[in-house]
Design a protein that fits this description.
Number of domains: 3
Radius of gyration: 24 Å
Largest sheet: 8 strands, antiparallel
Helix content: 10-25%
Strand content: 25-35%
Number of helices: 11
Structural class: alpha+beta
CATH topology of the largest domain: Rossmann fold
Length: 557
C-alpha cells in the first residue's frame, strides 16, 4: 500500500485550494493494481484509495474510466475524495491502461460494470454500499450499471453524459463527424508516448483537419492515429438510425424507478446536454431525487470539473456518511449574457411562455406569419463545398459562440432577422423549429441555427439543430408529408438559458449542412464512411400562409 508522501500531500493541498474545498480530514493511502476478474476470464485493474487509519469496511465510490487511473483522474476522483474520508475504487475499463481484453467502447460496460460491482461487494474492505461518480465516458459506465444493479447503488453522479449516449454520435440521423474523429484521436493515442492529451498538439490537429476534409472517411482513424481504432470503425459502419449494434450502449428506455438518487453537472455547450436534460426530466417524473446544474461550459472545461468535484463531495457525504442534504433548488442554470444563476423547481420552467417567430419571404422574422402567398426562399447545398458550421457544442475547443457573419454571406445559407428588441429577452427552455421545404434529392440535411445579433451587426450562434432526411424514415414523427409533397420538418435545437439584450436582434439561419461538425450529406444515400462523391441538393424553404415555417422558444416573463 502506497502512503501519502510529502510530494503527494503538497499536490493535494494545491488541488484543494484550486477547487476551493475545505481542508482535508484524512490522509489517503493507495493500493494499486487490484485485479477483478470478469465473467469471460478477462482481468481489469483498479486502484483503491482509502483514508488511512480508518478501521473496518467502508462504502465504496466506484469510478470506471478508460483514460487512466493516475494524473488528473487519480487526483480529482481518487485522492481528493479519499482526503475527505471516502473509499474510492478507480478501475480502468476493458482494454485500457493495464486491463485485459479489447477496448470496444460502449459494448461491454454493462457486463463488466455489474461483475465489478459484485466483486467489490465481496471484498472485506467494502461494507456493501456502493455509489458511482464521474463524467463523460465514466458517466456512461454509471448508466450501464445503475438501472440493473441488485441490490441497487446508493447514489450516482453521471456528469456530462446521457443515457442515450449515441445521440452524441448521430444527432437526429446526422453523424457528428468532428466530435467522433476528435475522440478517436484521443483514445487511439492516449497510451502512447508524446504530448499529454490535455496539452495542445498542433501536428495532431493538422492531421485531424486533413482527415475531416478527405473522402472516403472509413480510414480517417489511420490518417490521424497511424492505426485502426475500433470505435471509429464502429462509428462509420453502424450509422443507420435503427442499427441494433448500439443497443448495448443506450439506456434511455430503462425503468427510471430503479435508479438511485442522481446528481448531475453539465454545460450549455456540452454535446450531451439535450440527452442529459431529458434524463433529468425522466428521473424526476419517476419520483427520483435528482438534481442538475448547467453552467456556461464546453465539455470538460476547468470550471465544470471544479463544480463536479465540489458537488460530489457534498452529495457523497450525504448519501454515504449521513451528512446534511444538499440545499437549494433541484435545477440551477446559468443565464448566459446575464451572468447570473437561476434557481428553478423543474426543467423546463413551468412559468415560461412560448414565443413563435415566423420566417418571412423578405428575410425578416415576425410574430405573424405571411398572410397569403409568397415565393419560396431558395438555395443549393453542394457537398463538394459544404456549408461550414462555426462554434457550437464541440468535444474540444474552440466551440461555444463564434462570429457567424462570414457564413451568413454564403449563397447556401438563408438568413431571417428580427427587429431590435425593445427590452431584454430571456430565453430559457427548449428551442424548436418547424420548416416547410422541398428538396431536389431525397437525401438531405436541414440545419436551423438561432443567432444573437448585436447593434454592431456581429452575429453569434446561440443554439442549433439538424435533421437528416432519408426516404427510409420519411414520413416520421418529426417529418410530415403534405398533399403537395412538401415536407414539414421538426428540428430540435439545443435547449438554452440565454439573454438577448435590448437593442439586439434574433436571427435564424437555414442551411443544408454544418461541416465538419456534422458529416456532409452526399445526397446519394451511400454510407458516410464509404462515399467518395456527392450531388448538389436544391432547397426551397416555404413560408406562405399554408406553410408557416417558424422557430419557437420559451421566454421568462
Amino acid at each position: 500500500m502506497n502512503d501519502d508522501g510529502p510530494v503527494r500531500r503538497l499536490v493535494g493541498r494545491a488541488v484543494d485550494k484550486v477547487l476551493g474545498l475545505p481542508g482535508a480530514t484524512a490522509r489517503p493511502v493507495v493500493r494499486p493494481d487490484l485485479c477483478a476478474t470478469m465473467a469471460d476470464g478477462v482481468s481489469l485493474l483498479g486502484d483503491l484509495y482509502r483514508p488511512a487509519d480508518v478501521p473496518g469496511p467502508l462504502p465504496v465510490v466506484l469510478v470506471r474510466l478508460p483514460y487512466g487511473r493516475t494524473g488528473l483522474n487519480g487526483q480529482l476522483f481518487g485522492a481528493t475524495l479519499a482526503r475527505r474520508g471516502f473509499q474510492v475504487f478507480l478501475q480502468s475499463t476493458r482494454g485500457t491502461f493495464g486491463s485485459g481484453g479489447q477496448f470496444r467502447p460502449f459494448s461491454t460496460e454493462r457486463d463488466d460494470g455489474l461483475a465489478t460491482l459484485a466483486w467489490l461487494r465481496r471484498q472485506p474492505w467494502c461494507d456493501g454500499r456502493v455509489a458511482m461518480t464521474g463524467g463523460s465516458y465514466f458517466g456512461h459506465t454509471q448508466w450501464a450499471v445503475a438501472p440493473y444493479a441488485d441490490p441497487p447503488l446508493v447514489s450516482i453522479s453521471p456528469h456530462v453524459t446521457a443515457a442515450e449516449v449515441t445521440r452524441a454520435f448521430y444527432d437526429h440521423g446526422a453523424p457528428q463527424l468532428e466530435n467522433g474523429l476528435s475522440w478517436t484521436a484521443t483514445i487511439g493515442r492516449q497510451e502512447r508516448r508524446g504530448l499529454p492529451p490535455l496539452l495542445p498538439n498542433p501536428a495532431l490537429r493538422a492531421r485531424t483537419r486533413r482527415a475531416l476534409n478527405s473522402l472516403p472517411l472509413q480510414a480517417a482513424d489511420v490518417a490521424v492515429t497511424g492505426a485502426p481504432v475500433a470505435f471509429w470503425r464502429d462509428f462509420v459502419d453502424h450509422a443507420a438510425p435503427t442499427d441494433p449494434f448500439w443497443d448495448p450502449a443506450d439506456h434511455s428506455r430503462v425503468d427510471m424507478h430503479r435508479l438511485p438518487p442522481a446528481n448531475m453537472v453539465t454545460g450549455w455547450w456540452d454535446l450531451f446536454l439535450p440527452g442529459q436534460l431529458a434524463d433529468f426530466r425522466a428521473l424526476r417524473a419517476a419520483g427520483n431525487d435528482a438534481r442538475i446544474l448547467v453552467g456556461p461550459w464546453l465539455h470538460g472545461d476547468a470550471g465544470e470539473l471544479k463544480e463536479i468535484v465540489v458537488r460530489d463531495v457534498e452529495w457523497l457525504d450525504h448519501h454515504l456518511n449521513g451528512g446534511p442534504a444538499p440545499q437549494g433548488s433541484p435545477v440551477r442554470v446559468w443565464l448566459q449574457r446575464a451572468d447570473e444563476w437561476l434557481d428553478l423547481d423543474e426543467w423546463p420552467p413551468r412559468h415560461a411562455e412560448r414565443l413563435t417567430q415566423h420566417l418571412r419571404g423578405d428575410g425578416t422574422l415576425s410574430a405573424d406569419p405571411e398572410p397569403g402567398a409568397a415565393e419560396p426562399s431558395r438555395f443549393t447545398y453542394d457537398p463538394a463545398d459544404p456549408t461550414p458550421g462555426v462554434g457550437g457544442p464541440l468535444l474540444q475547443a474552440p466551440g461555444k459562440q463564434a462570429d457567424n457573419r462570414a457564413v451568413e454571406l454564403r449563397p447556401d445559407v438563408l438568413v431571417f432577422t428580427g427587429e431590435p428588441l425593445a427590452a431584454d429577452l430571456d430565453v430559457v427552455g427548449p428551442v424548436t423549429a418547424r420548416v416547410h421545404l422541398r428538396t431536389g434529392v431525397p437525401h438531405a440535411d436541414v440545419v436551423v441555427r438561432l443567432c444573437d445579433v448585436d447593434p454592431e451587426g456581429v452575429s453569434l450562434n446561440v443554439v442549433d439543430g439538424i435533421r437528416r432526411l432519408d426516404p427510409a424514415t420519411v414520413p416520421a414523427a418529426d417529418v410530415a408529408v403534405g398533399e403537395d409533397g412538401t415536407l414539414a420538418v421538426e428540428v430540435e435545437l439545443f435547449p438554452t438559458a440565454y439573454r438577448f439584450g435590448a437593442g439586439h436582434r434574433l436571427r435564424v439561419q437555414v442551411s443544408g449542412g454544418a461541416f465538419p461538425r456534422f458529416a456532409r450529406n452526399l445526397g446519394t444515400g451511400e454510407g458516410f464512411g464509404t462515399g467518395t462523391s456527392g450531388v448538389p441538393c436544391p432547397f426551397e424553404i416555404l413560408h406562405d400562409a399554408d406553410h408557416p415555417s417558424s422557430v419557437q422558444v420559451q421566454r421568462l416573463p
